[in-house]
Amino acid sequence: MIRAVTRKALPAKFEILVRIIAVVAAIAASMIIMLCMKFNPFVVYANILKGSLGSGYRFCQTVNKAIPLTVLSLGTGIAFKMKFWNIGGEGQFFMGAFGAALAAFAFPSLPAPLLLTLMALVAFIFGGLWALIPAGLKTKWGTSETLVTLMLNYIAQKWVGYLQYGPWRDPQGNGFPQVAKFAANAILPKVFGIHVGWIITLVLAAIVFFLIKKTKFGYEIQVIGESTETARYAGINVSRVMILAVFLSGGLCALAGMMNASAIENTISEKMSGGIGFTAVITTWLAQLDPLVMVIVSFLFSMLIQGGSFLQSSMQIPASMSSILQGIIIFFVLGSEFFVKYKLFFAKRAKKNVIDTNTAEVAK
Amino acid sequence: MNFFISLGLFLQVAVQMGTHILLGILGGILFEKAGNTNLGTEGMMLLGASIGYYAGIKTGNPVAAVLCAGFAGSLGALIYAFITVSLRGNQVVTGLVLTIFGTGVAGFLGKVLTAQPLPTSVTDVFTHRAIPLLSKIPVIGPMLFDQSPYIYMSVVIAVLLFLYYKYTRWGMNVRSVGENPAAADASGINVSLYKYVHICAGGFLCGLGGAYLSLVFVPRWQENMTAGAGWISIALVIFCTWNPIKAIFAAWAFGALKGLAFKCQNMVIAGHAIAISTQLLDMIPYVATVIVLVIMSLKMKRENQSPASLGNAYFREER
């Protein structure tokens, strides 16, 4: 029999090693599955690399996907830090895009810097308010925020769909149900060939890092995450901090929607998210809620997504392959967590080892 | 008289539109009674829908198709169980990943399935069968007694599940696992085994729910055919207060709501055709779910509470 015992603490080096082993094992497992499906796994992975980094254009595409993913992760992460399970990034993303479009269509003649700021502001407020619905329901009546945020995702998406097929449908759309494109002054400018969102994203990551790690507000969020009881006892106004933090969380997710609407789509549509809000939940968790790690993890995931869609054209493998790969990799990383937290023994040796660690404790 | 006939037909459709949700809820009850939050329902439904359909095409055997769908759901649930029970991973994230994984597998297989119709040897078995005499009862006759055998099966499963939790030793044991695993462990119940078995059984039912869509209701392959039904079922588990009998009515009520939305698409009031946007009507089930969740949290009674240890991993040495 195998027995598990809680570890006291683990050197950071070992923790990273466990995670690397998990990812390597996941890649190995996915290769076996590819072999079963009669694909050459090395060619598949080579194509994923080629499709995501192989040329300047593809690299830009990968970064374009990493930008919203990172910002959504940052937003989701703030809520997760409080153990407020905001799975609603997707919906807040749509509401942000909606808010941005509303501003872009209302003031088409404003100069670009002013209009873009206005769009971001409206998006932030819309997304924040959208996230306040589950936050309000939770603080007031204890309604499960996980399920409410999930439902609101669908409602927000249908809302954008309603605009696209209904009142906002472009009469010059050649019969296609689509919203008119934004004017040039509502589109984010490019810096080094990629829209300026990449700079905004890096700045946001730094700001969120600072906010969580260095400010009183960030500290309060962390305390609430540990225990609302403790927070209350320490005199923290739990519902105020929670409402404010969830507003920030939703607002950040909405900014991702605004940037995508402005720079990538140049309009809004019900298909514009592609489930990225759900992927952000995963990247947030994988990054252990650390804003700087999120940047890296999101980029790696964007490589997988972008490379996955390249597989479709280069090898006729459906792009869903990347969802399967994502699933396998995270299953392994989730499982590896166990080896970080617990120590395994074979039962025969177990007793002796436990005594050893105990005496070691005493000796210290 | 005419009104009663159309009401009867409407109720018949309502049941048909709620059956996959019913199976999803029953799966959810199995997870949550064993103390696990599983957000993977949508993924397991899609696994069941795609693999069940695939098996249906390959074998032409309806029983094989249904069993494959169930086992596909169970397999997804088994991955979830291994990570959350044995390795004590985060249940929320694992469930979400299961959904992404299931969506990926269904999308992958779907490329093969889209062009292929189900053989008639499968579809014929699942067409509606009127039970003589009983189906002639006005209004509720067609709803209850003129349906596909698949729907009869879903109701039977719900009733069996109710009896299981109420009257059998295993059912009571698993309830104690969900409420207080430490106490259950102390009284000699194998907590991990109970969790594994019930999670896999729940996955089986979610798989059946997905296969209902692809084999019976539609019956063709459509990309992302569950369209959020898995999430709605998870929410409705709370609505029916973990009671399989109430689950039947919750699911059918939601089916009726969907049917109503469908009817509203082309309404004729006083001779004027009124068209309401499909997208707005599609929102109704989700809005209704939020309202239901709020109402449930407002009137949470003690006996209606969720299993006390829901969402927590159990580790003997951390008691």
Tell me the strand percentage band of chain A. under 5%
Order of helices and strands of chain A: EHHHHHHEEHHHHHHHEH
The main sheet of chain A comes to: 2 strands, antiparallel
> Which CATH first-tier class of the largest domain in chain A would you pick?
Mainly Alpha
Write the H/E string of chain B, N to C.
HHHHHEHEHHHHHHEEH
Q: Architecture of the largest domain in chain A, CATH level 2?
A: Orthogonal Bundle
Number of strands of chain B: 4
Oligomer classification: heterodimer
Alpha-beta classification of chain A: mainly alpha
pLDDT < 50 runs, ≥5 residues of chain A: 354-364
Report, as a whole number of angstroms, the end-to-end distance of chain A: 30 Å
For the largest sheet of chain B, list the strands in their spatial order: 1-2
Shape of chain A: globular
Structure, described:
The complex is a heterodimer of chains A (about 375) and B (about 325). Chain A is mainly alpha-helical and about 375 residues long. Chain A has 2 domains: about 1-40 and about 320-364, no CATH class; about 65-315, ABC transporter involved in vitamin B12 uptake, BtuC (Orthogonal Bundle), CATH 1.10.3470. Chain A has 14 helices and 4 strands. In chain A, helix 4 (about 90-105) packs across helix 11 (about 275-285). Chain A is globular and about 75 Å long. Chain A starts with a strand and ends with a helix. Chain B has about 325 residues and is mostly helical. Chain B has one domain (about 1-310, about 310-315): Orthogonal Bundle (ABC transporter involved in vitamin B12 uptake, BtuC), CATH 1.10.3470. Helix content of chain B is about 70%, strand content about 5%. In chain B, the strands form 2 sheets. Chain B has a two-stranded antiparallel ribbon with strand order 1-2. In chain B, strands 3-4 form a two-stranded antiparallel ribbon. In chain B, strand 3 (about 265-270) and strand 4 (about 270-275) form a beta hairpin. The chains are: A mainly alpha (about 375), B mainly alpha (about 325). The interface between A and B is large, with 50 and 51 residues.
